[in-house]
């Protein structure tokens, strides 16, 4: 009797092994649901990274132009009217570009002998997802002392309009409600 019981027990164990191979439908559904939840959480963050990179590029250009304008002013006793004069690689033909690789309009405005501004505005179809940026350089106290002040501002929310700067002979600042990036 004992051997018959042992044989049935071994047969039972072997038959269960064959039945329990693979995954059940419920286990597969649980895994699919978990993957779906994780991707739903991660996808918005992943998609916003491209916009953050585009904004970082615009911020970088604003800072580079501010520094280049300071250097140009020290060497030439005037501000540059175009980025080509600054010898930095900032795209200026965005408005006529058809490749779709540019997301900002870049523009230098020479405001006379005492200050200059540089703006980075999102192109029309990107103005609802990208912030605008502006930078400025001003000569403090007049033309001859060589002291300058710079400011770099960004808008509080995505927009197509560049931030407003306050540039006078005592300081450079961002107009309310824009954010100073210094």
Structural description of this entry:
The chain crosses the membrane at residues 21-47. It is found in: Membrane. It is a single-pass membrane protein. This is Prepilin-type N-terminal cleavage/methylation domain-containing protein. The protein is 41% helix and 20% strand. The protein is α+β, with helices and mostly antiparallel strands and 182 residues long. It has one domain. The strands form 2 sheets. Strands 1-2-3-4-7 form a 5-stranded antiparallel β-sheet, with helices on one face. Strands 5-6 form a two-stranded antiparallel sheet. The model has no long low-confidence stretch (mean pLDDT 84).
List the helices and strands and how they pair.
Layout: H1 2-19, H2 25-76, H3 83-86, E1 104-110, E2 115-122, E3 133-139, E4 148-154, E5 165-167, E6 172-174, E7 179-180
GO biological process, one term: protein secretion by the type II secretion system
InterPro entries: Bac_GSPG_pilin (IPR000983), N_methyl_site (IPR012902), Pilin-like (IPR045584), Pilin_GH (IPR031975)
Transmembrane segments: 21-47
Concise structural overview:
This protein is an alpha+beta fold and 182 residues long. It has one domain (32-180). It is built from three helices and seven strands.
What's the story with the biggest beta sheet? 5 strands, antiparallel
Q: Order of SSEs, N→C? A: HHHEEEEEEE
Oligomer: single chain
Strand order of the largest sheet: 1-2-3-4-7
Q: Gyration radius, to the nearest Å? A: 31 Å
Give the total of domains: 1
* Strand portion: 15-25%
Low-confidence stretches: none
Structure classification: alpha+beta
**Helical coverage, percent range:** 40-55%
Q: Distance between termini?
A: 89 Å
Extended strand count: 7
Shape: rod-shaped
């Amino acid at each position: 009797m004992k051997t018959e019981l042992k044989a049935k027990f071994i047969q039972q164990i072997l038959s269960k092994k064959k039945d329990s191979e693979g995954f059940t439908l419920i286990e597969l559904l649980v895994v699919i649901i978990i993957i779906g939840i994780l991707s739903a959480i991660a996808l918005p963050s992943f998609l916003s990274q491209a916009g953050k990179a585009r904004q970082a590029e615009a911020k970088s250009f604003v800072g580079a132009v501010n520094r280049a304008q300071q250097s140009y002013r020290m060497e030439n006793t005037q501000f540059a009217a175009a980025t080509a004069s600054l010898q930095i690689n900032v795209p200026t033909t965005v408005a006529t570009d058809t490749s779709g690789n540019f997301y900002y309009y870049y523009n230098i405005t020479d405001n006379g002998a005492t200050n200059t501004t540089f703006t980075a505005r999102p192109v029309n179809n990107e103005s609802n997802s990208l912030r605008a940026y502006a930078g400025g350089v001003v000569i403090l106290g007049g033309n001859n002392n060589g002291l300058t002040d710079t400011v770099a501002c960004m808008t509080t929310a995505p927009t197509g309009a560049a931030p407003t700067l306050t540039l006078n002979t005592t300081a450079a600042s961002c107009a309310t409600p824009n954010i100073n990036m210094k």
